[in-house]
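It is worth pausing here to work through a concrete case rather than discussing structure prediction in the abstract. The textbook approach is simple: state the sequence, then state the predicted structure, then interpret. We follow exactly that order.
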Amino acid sequence: MKYQIIGGSFPAVNVILDAGETVITQSGAMAWSDASVEMSTNAEGGLLKSIGRMFSGASLMFVRHTATEDESAITFSASFPGSIKEFTVDEDHEYFAQKSAFLVAQESVNIDASVNKNFWAGLLGGEGFVLQKFTGNGLLLAEIDGSVVEVDLEEGQQIKVETGHVALFESTVTYDVESVSGFKNIFFGGQGLFLTTLTGPGKVWLQTLTAQDMAQKLIPYMPTASSSSSSVSVHSSSD
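Step two, the predicted structure:
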């Protein structure tokens, strides 16, 4: 599997496959492909695993793209402005990721759902209850919202992160959620009630932008039912 990341802040990845080579992606990720790439859709690992992955933000069904000729090209686009980053998955490098991080991987990479051991951490922390888990052996390409910041945590070293800014982390990193202390911090700090705590050793990849934050910024500019009806009434009077 060869690839080239294109598109700048609105990235896509152009993947080149040899005959018989297969990659797996979520439904809807393909932008375009050569006619020599065949597509098949199925529930990888069975229906129950697929349902579990759906709760982690992955699609219910995965799509397999298989080349019938050498040098077959297929392009996958990210769903949000940001970055696409490569990760090598093997027995020494397994990863957890927030929902929607998975873009495309070699078929030898396993994508599963993983429930956080701390129930309250996941339930109260929002996105962190069910994570995507990547195991096996192969190349993984993940999409990260905004720019990516890599943090290498030493043994016992901790960082606190707004949950949505956690993109991926190595399986050696401990993931938990703690409550924000103090009345003023809770009601006026703007961070919500909980923050994610990541404890080393291991690497963490943070994202500078989240879909939730962008959506909140856009809400005041979205048309409402009242504004739509006002437009209609003005138009009618002019007629």
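Step three, interpretation. The two ends are 61 Å apart (CA to CA). The chain has one domain: 2-221.
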